[in-house]
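new request in #modeling-help
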Amino acid sequence: KAGVTQTPRYLIKTRGQQVTLSCSPISGHRSVSWYQQTPGQGLQFLFEYFSETQRNKGNFPGRFSGRQFSNSRSEMNVSTLELGDSALYLCASTSRERGGHETQYFGPGTRLLVL
Amino acid sequence: AQSVTQLGSHVSVSEGALVLLRCNYSSSVPPYLFWYVQYPNQGLQLLLKYTSAATLVKGINGFEAEFKKSETSFHLTKPSAHMSDAAEYFCAVSGGSNYKLTFGKGTLLTVNP
């Protein structure tokens, strides 16, 4: 099976702009999670979608939003970009496995630089 | 609430030496525990996971970890380090109805020739 794909891989924006990042999960996986990784804060959970519904949300401002489509692909949007939004944004595709536990498999990430 | 503490932000070993990366967790529900590795400019790769089946878990690339409930620990080990093991390692916890992963701050492993 193909892994998690994220596009674009690199992005440069200026303050005040908005950005949309895309994630295609592993075939058959219905849950997608997003994480932000920065040197200062480490890996932080943004939100998780399952069957087009947001099931869980982290502690980020409303400028960060997401959605999931019927084919399980997901997008996240950041509006009114700030310098502090510069980060690696990771998407994870979740496999529900025997025993009921879930395992997350990560994509390569989108590196966003805000100038 | 769940949390993870990784002791040592940077560990340096010689090639062929034992690798020991420490992880302690806190969880109000029975935890699922994971170790991920991140190479420069890449995403996270799953090394191994604990899901209550066995306390000693074997993963890829010769790594293993032991779940010790009494010590709330899930330390990662490898008997003999290889240069290709140089990377950043993250311990993570999830559990209950909370589907998110909570990560530690990471440990950067350096392998010296």
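bot summary: The two ends of chain A are 37 Å apart (CA to CA).
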